[in-house]
Amino acid sequence: MAKLPYHYGVKLRIFPSNEQKRLIKRNSDASRFIYNEMNGMNKELFLLRQVKIPIELVQKRIQTLEQRLKTPSTGISNVHGWLNDNDLDSLMKANAIKNYRAAWNLFRKVHRAGIPVFHKKRIEQKYQTSCMYASKLALPNMKNGSVRIINFRHIQLPKLGSLRFKGISKEIFNRLDNIRIGTTTISMDATGRYYVSMQLASEQPFVNKVNNETATSIGIDLNIDNFLTDSEGKIVANPRYYRSVKGTLAKAQRKLSRRALRAKKEHKPLSNAKNYQKQRNVVAAIQRKIANRRKNFLHLVSTTLIKKHDLVVAEELRSKNTLRNHVLAMSISDVGWRTFLGMLAYKADLYGQKFITVNPRNTTQTCSACGFVMGTGTTNKLTLADRDWTCPQCETYHIRDHNAAKNILAKGIASM
Length: 416
Prior knowledge:
Blueprint: E1 6-15, H1 18-48, H2 56-70, H3 72-79, H4 90-110, E2 125-130, E3 148-151, E4 154-157, E5 161-166, H5 170-173, E6 179-188, E7 194-202, E8 217-222, E9 226-230, E10 235-237, H6 241-244, H7 246-265, H8 274-308, E11 311-315, H9 319-322, H10 329-335, H11 337-351, E12 354-358, E13 388-390, E14 397-399, H12 400-415
Parallel strand pairs: 8-11, 11-12
Antiparallel strand pairs: 1-5, 1-7, 2-6, 3-4, 4-5, 6-7, 8-9, 9-10, 13-14
Helix pairs in contact: 1-2, 1-4, 2-3, 7-8, 8-11
């Protein structure tokens, strides 16, 4: 998979039977258990190593844990025999172990993510498997692996068998013979919908490269008032999907809270309280609708920008830092800046375009005509309330966001 030059991902909705739903839950629970078991062994090993006195019992326990962590697939299964059940996918175990080790590598290399923590039991279910191919196959593809497409409506998955699905594009379906499947994720969301996500790879590009007749560059300034303003002066309005249903969602959540209290008074576990579960599905459906509408909007805007311009320049945003402002936190989360920048990055690679981010320092305060920086000399810095201003040096009138987009584009071109 890694050796192939072109990669892509698809997410399909699947419709499992009751027996297949049971198998998905068993594999999801087992995957979470293996991850947590490895995390527990590592934590215990860390504490035992703090003991400086060479106690024989402690030394033996350290050796036992180290041996289990070297070969966790057999080490954990030998202690917990139920993991050898025929219902469980062996590749699910391998992927759970790989994910735990990847979490540690992410902590060691990036340092932004904390150490791996225990995965809580949630409504959602998820586990990963891999598509395996026979060594004698001349041409591995989407039709002859352990995960394979049977026809336009059915997919074969390890342990689960054949499942009905929908959502594959005709472009992918017509190229099944030259595409390979890699890691496959089976999941269930909070509303009970099931999905399968597949990593695909091929020697041929999944989309046609964009060939614009004239090279065009654009800078974009992301803000809360409008979703974005570009260096050409065009504005994309902020749809505010969360705010549009905030009242409806709040009302549904209050009803959910009341039903939770009633279930507790009647000494019912929430998993068995029918009224609570019914209302929980209502709340989850509203939240899913918000997320889907936002994601659809971000896909449309990002694809349009990448296809129409050879170079797209945006400001480098750290959403984690901006969310500390409790006044703007909800608006920043609603607009989805981080997701949008991620889409621009991978779509630029997909379509053969360029996307870069620049330091946003002084892009708002600098005059794009003469380079004068507000806040220097006797001038004051612009505040968030100042939506337009006139440069005191060259007397050029600026609309704040349009001026910032021009400066972002200039910085991007200068950095190339």
